[in-house]
Design a protein that fits this description.
The complex is a heterodimer of chains A (111) and B (809). Chain A is mostly beta strands and 111 residues long. Helix content of chain A is 7%, strand content 41%. In chain A, a hairpin with a 5-residue loop joins strand 3 and strand 4 (38-42). Chain A is globular. In chain B, the strands form 11 sheets. In chain B, strands 3-2-1-7-19 form a 5-stranded parallel sheet, with no helix packed on it. By secondary structure, chain B is an alpha/beta fold. The relative contact order of chain B is 0.05. Chain B has 27 helices and 39 strands. In chain B, helix 6 (185-197) packs across helix 15 (503-509), helix 11 (426-434) packs across helix 13 (457-468) and helix 21 (650-661) runs parallel beside helix 22 (722-739). Chain B is elongated and about 120 Å long. The chains are: A mainly beta (111), B alpha/beta (809). At the A-B interface, strand 2, strand 5 and helix 1 of A face helix 17, strand 39 and helix 27 of B. Strand 2 (17-23) of chain A pairs parallel with strand 39 of chain B.
């Protein structure tokens, strides 16, 4: 069963925006859509390493700020003609708090 | 043998339950019915037409005194139950106890009242029962001012009802759009527009701070400082299950009274039904599931087996003239897809939410005729893969052939009107093509078709494509992006002519085919709205490209570069020290002199930006906007101050121009140069706007470039005083801001509109002055230092959580 960790309030992320969670292995971009859905994906574009958390969020997709590759937040899959995928992580909202898959943090405490 | 059944609450759920019970087990129960309200069951959801005056109370009574008498119901109306004695199975009111064998709790819900100062003043009401309705009817006299707090289903019905009685009504809603639980932002926008057309004022994102008044309510104060006068305030912010009796009796209660599939509480002799119950963690506010509960509970009481399984429910708003339908789940989600239909002219919006081959939800506004059909598909989980192509058009087209986009146009007769603005029919367009109008621009010149509002552009192109076949390459000027068929020029024109003042408004009225646009159209729309409605539109930071959102230039490794403004390229030892200190303090890996006569600090971490900005602000420096589509730099030479050839004070003029223009947003970056003599040391003749000083005054030239294209500026106009230079350049920048396509530099825009046209606008003193005034109006709002603004909130620039730090602790 997935364990979840509270990383902050939903209101800490603007609608159609993102914030970053720093973990030992890098950064996770946590997105909030216009309809208050929350997604967590690796904050690193497979193309040239762009911080996806700084991209423009539209619908359930984000456009990388460096070279405009578009990723589906559900699957992490690059859209259109581009190839590539970023990792996605379980995230949900409960009582206005954002919960993230705890395995992300656990990995480095074991190390 | 009859059983003793006591029912607490004579609302819609228990009323329907009794109907079923008397039908399936006519003589099995001896019923006592308590009700705190001094009346029997009526159709509570029809209070809205009573409030609006479209019905009277008698019309909505469902069970009258005769009905109860015929069935031998002992009615205790106006008698509130105060206690349930479970051990002895007795229910107590103030007049005494009534024993029961079976007990049904149907206490419904209580309106939620926000705990703000003034909530207990006279003139504050909720919207729940006939007393509330009568209070609103009494208060809603023509000219009276009413404020409704809460823009959900109930609040809007209260608002519309009072408005229909002539009151001036304001709705205050906490969320970004009305009825956010039932509608998406696009439908919420249409609803708000229709309500505003009915004279109801809507204030979204409004948090109530206090209700003001001495003896009775006088006004409502919001957190943002807005004050609305009010003779009556109605709270419609939500309901909560009325569970006090159940709590006191130690039944299991969470948010509501917990019941199982048979509506039985934690006590097998006690049942609960209606808005007071919680079933599988779910509460119920709409009537359809309550009626299902009524059926199941009647069967349970009659000894039959029945299971309550809540089904999807649909919502309709009972406001005359507002056509709205929402059903199922319409939130975005993994694997969910949208089909969107918009008809801006008729104010129609339909959105279907699909998951795989099933329809999951539907939101419709303006035309809800197919609502029931969609609702059926949602409830039945019908596989819609065969009819997906035409699904949005409803049952009339279900499973029909794929529509050929050109077939409809081909079928039009020659006299069919294509362009409504200019009265151009299909035949004239075909004739004009024969006469040589083979491109859209030629067609517009020849017939004016699609040359006014532009909404028929696609149709004109289809006629041309049909007539010319492969000879027609549609759209030399492509649409903004794949979210729309409109070009940048069309959108700019329509934003102005239709008075569109928000991104959702543009997307709705101009028929965007996506939800939330994309990274191409959103920044463009945000700019157009800023430029056209400087005092009304509020900049949408999330529609900005990263550099403008973060007020720094992102670098390839995700760090940023920071460039403070150096007016006219002039700095001081103190500023240089502050820059050097900042470079040391934040470990800046590279300090570089830019081509724009200032200093760039490269490689700054995002979370260090606010602190660095504070330090630079403290030394008197502001953002250089080196990242913006807007004024960048004004390069100068030293002019008459020091140079032996200088003819004017080019440095001073450059500084004054930069102080005039900084902070303004533009379609693309704007760079200036001011040279003190024709030797042109400031390179003012290969930039967007250049001034070359001569003995007799100032030569202003524009539309140069030294980037992807290299181009010399072209002479625009000559000025004799500095004041004149300032007015001309501000007016020219404003002309560009108002007319150019997003991301077009000045030279591209001038090529399109022609330098002569620009000169005409600028040379005419009245037009120039008006442009200048509009520029200054915009500057009154946008000329502010973004660094100072954002440095105040450093926390939001850092990660929301940092687990690398936690591990180290």
């Amino acid at each position: 069963m997935t364990h979840f960790i509270d990383i902050g309030a939903l209101d800490d992320i603007p609608r159609q925006g993102a914030r970053v969670v720093r973990v030992a292995s890098g950064c996770i971009a946590v997105f909030r859509t216009a309809t208050d859905r929350v997604y967590a994906i690796e904050d690193r574009c497979p193309h040239k390493g762009g911080p996806l958390s700084e991209g423009i969020v539209h619908g359930q997709a984000v456009t990388c700020p460096l070279h405009a590759m578009v990723f589906d937040l559900n699957t992490g899959q690059a859209q259109g003609a581009d190839a590539g995928q970023v990792r996605t992580f379980a995230a949900r909202v409960e009582g206005g708090r954002i919960l993230l898959d705890a395995a992300l943090m656990a990995r480095q405490s074991a190390a | 043998m009859t059983q003793k059944l006591v029912v607490i609450g004579a609302g819609m759920a228990s009323g329907r339950m009794l109907e079923h019970l008397f039908a399936i087990a006519p003589h099995a129960f001896d019923v006592t019915l308590f009700n705190a309200e001094a009346r029997g069951n009526y159709n509570r959801i029809m209070l809205s037409p009573v409030l609006s005056g479209e019905k009277v109370f008698a019309d909505i009574v469902t069970h009258d005194a005769d009905w109860y008498a015929t069935r031998g119901v002992d009615c205790r109306f106006g008698e509130a139950v105060v206690k349930i004695d479970r051990a002895n199975r007795v229910v107590y009111s103030n007049t005494g106890g009534v024993p029961y064998e079976r007990l049904v709790i149907a206490t419904g819900s209580a309106p939620f009242i926000i705990p703000v100062p003034g909530k207990d003043l006279a003139g504050v009401c909720t919207y729940r029962d006939l007393e509330d309705t009568n209070a609103m009817i009494a208060a809603a006299k023509p000219g009276a001012k009413a404020v409704v707090i809460g823009g959900g289903l109930l609040g809007l019905e209260a608002a519309a009802g009072m408005a229909l009685r002539g009151a001036e009504v304001t709705v205050i809603h906490l969320m970004g759009h009305l009825m956010e639980r039932q509608l998406d932002p696009a439908a919420g926008y249409l609803l708000q527009r229709d309500l505003e057309a009915k004279g109801i004022r809507v204030h979204c994102k409004g948090a109530t701070k206090a209700i003001l008044g001495t003896d009775r309510v006088e006004a409502v104060l919001l957190e943002d400082g807005t004050v609305y006068d009010a003779d009556l305030v109605c709270f419609a912010v939500g309901i909560r299950p009325e569970t006090r009796l159940a709590n006191d009796a130690h039944l299991e209660v969470n948010r509501g009274i917990v019941v199982n599939d048979q509506l039985t509480t934690s006590d097998p002799a006690i049942f609960a039904i209606g808005e007071c119950v919680e079933h599988e963690k779910q509460l119920f506010g709409l009537v359809a599931p309550l009626y299902d509960q009524a059926k199941v509970l009647a069967a349970t009481l009659a000894g039959q087996h029945a299971v309550f399984a809540p089904v999807q429910t649909a919502t309709k708003l009972k406001v005359t003239g507002v056509d709205l339908f929402s059903a199922g789940d319409f939130a975005d989600g993994p694997g969910r897809e949208d089909i969107v239909f918009r008809d801006p002219g008729r104010g129609i919006y339909k959105r279907l939410i699909l998951e795989g081959n099933r329809l999951l939800g539907a939101v419709m506004y303006g035309d809800t005729t197919d609502g029931a059909w969609f609702f059926g598909l949602i409830k039945d989980g019908t596989d819609i893969s065969d009819m997906r192509d035409t699904l949005i058009f409803g049952p009339a087209f279900a499973g029909g052939p794929r529509p050929d986009p050109l077939a409809a146009v081909a079928a039009l007769p020659p006299e069919a009107e294509i362009c409504g603005c200019n009265g151009v029919c299909k035949g004239r367009i075909v004739d004009a093509i024969g006469a040589g109008a083979t491109t859209l621009d030629l067609m517009r010149t020849a017939t004016k078709a699609s040359a006014s509002c532009g909404t028929c552009t696609g149709l004109v192109e289809q006629v041309m494509a049909l007539t010319l076949g492969d000879g027609f390459s549609a759209n030399a000027n492509p649409p903004i992006c794949k979210c729309t068929d409109h070009t940048h020029e069309d959108v700019r024109r329509l934003i102005k002519s239709m008075g569109l003042k928000s991104i959702p408004a543009v997307m709705q009225e101009l028929g965007w085919t996506t939800i939330g646009g994309c990274a191409s159209c959103r920044p463009a729309l945000n700019y157009y709205l800023i430029a056209d409605w400087p005092t009304e539109y509020v900049d949408d930071r999330q529609s900005r490209f990263v550099n403008e959102r973060n007020h720094a230039n992102i670098q390839k490794d995700g760090t940023y570069s920071v460039v403070p403004r150096m007016w006219g390229g002039v700095t001081t030892p103190a500023e240089l020290r502050a820059i050097a200190d900042a470079a040391d303090k934040y470990n800046v890996p590279m300090v570089k002199v830019t081509g724009g006569q200032r200093i760039d600090l490269l490689g700054v971490r995002k979370e260090d930006l606010p602190a660095m900005w504070s330090d630079l602000n403290a030394a008197g420096m502001v953002s250089g906007h080196a990242y913006s589509k807007g004024l960048r730099t004004v390069k100068t030479c030293v002019g008459t101050e020091f140079c032996r050839f200088g003819t004017q004070d080019s440095t001073g003029l450059g500084i004054r121009l930069e102080k005039l223009l900084w902070g303004s947003w533009a379609p693309a970056k704007v760079k200036l140069g001011v040279s003190g003599c024709p030797r042109n040391c400031a390179e003012a003749t290969c930039t967007d706007i250049g001034v070359v000083c001569v003995d007799s005054g100032y030569e202003i030239s524009v539309a140069g470039a030294a980037g992807m294209d290299v181009k010399e500026t072209e002479f625009l106009i000559k000025a004799t005083t500095e004041a004149e230079v300032m007015e001309i350049i501000a007016a020219f920048v404003q002309l560009y801001r108002e007319n150019a396509r997003y991301l077009h530099r000045i030279y591209k825009w001038v090529t399109k509109v022609g330098l002569d046209w620009c000169r005409e606008q600028i040379a005419d003193p009245a037009r120039r002055r008006a442009l200048y005034d509009r520029f200054m109006l915009s500057q009154s709002i946008y000329q502010k230092d973004p660094w100072a603004e954002h440095a105040a909130e450093p926390a939001v620039w850092a990660p929301i959580a940092d687990f690398t730090l936690r591990a180290a602790e």
